[in-house]
């Protein structure tokens, strides 16, 4: 989960590293994930989201498909 | 009735996070042992349970905290400035996660992984500033914990 200046930089990095291009997340989407995942992490009752909650968080962030399914065993 | 270790695990978890927030670094087993008045074996056992529940990530020694998400327990290139304190983050998501967890204004110090160009991202309590950048997720969600450090 690395930062890049632009999607073009992601493409160049993936080509150079011989890695598949995977989803790119915008800064506002990343903030949504950060607040949903970690907003209460310092409270005594905090816990990691369960798989169903993870799916809901991803969907609410606009991230859908098998890549974002915590129980998926295959993906494009 | 609570599961064995549940109450201690919660105390250990809170102690670890309190230590990280206050000092910006992960505590050693001895620190947590002293803070809670419990022997080191009990703390190590709690660490192991918290690792199994994916609350903490430990090194192979079973004592060194590599991650207390969103905080990194070890030095990393991704840094988060919150006031006078500088925290290490595990990844782009966690870099913003530190500000979300602390509910504080912060500045992310990172870089474009392709060009090496510095990326400085101010983050207010309402969100990050309009800095042109994106995050690439290389590993599908189902495989994150197969190698969470790489992820």
Descriptive notes:
The complex is a heterodimer of chains A (about 80) and B (about 150). Chain A is mainly alpha-helical and about 80 residues long. Chain A contains three helices and two strands, in the order βαβαα. The mean pLDDT of chain A is about 90. By secondary structure, chain B is of the alpha+beta class. Chain B has two domains: about 5-70, Arc Repressor Mutant, subunit A (Orthogonal Bundle); about 75-145, Alkylmercury lyase (Bactericidal permeability-increasing protein, domain 1), CATH 3.15.10.60. Chain B is built from four helices and nine strands. The radius of gyration of chain B is 17 Å and the shape is globular. Classes of the chains: A mainly alpha (about 80), B alpha+beta (about 150). The interface between A and B is large, with 45 and 50 residues.
Topology:
The complex is a heterodimer of chains A (76) and B (151).
Chain A: E1 2-4, H1 7-17, E2 24-26, H2 27-38, H3 51-60
Chain B: H1 6-23, H2 29-36, H3 40-52, E1 57-58, E2 65-68, E3 71-72, E4 79-82, E5 85-88, H4 92-102, E6 106-111, E7 118-124, E8 127-128, E9 134-136
Antiparallel strand pairs in B: 1-2, 2-3, 4-5, 4-6, 6-7, 7-8
Helix pairs in contact in B: 1-3, 2-3
Brief overview, please?
Chain A is mainly α.
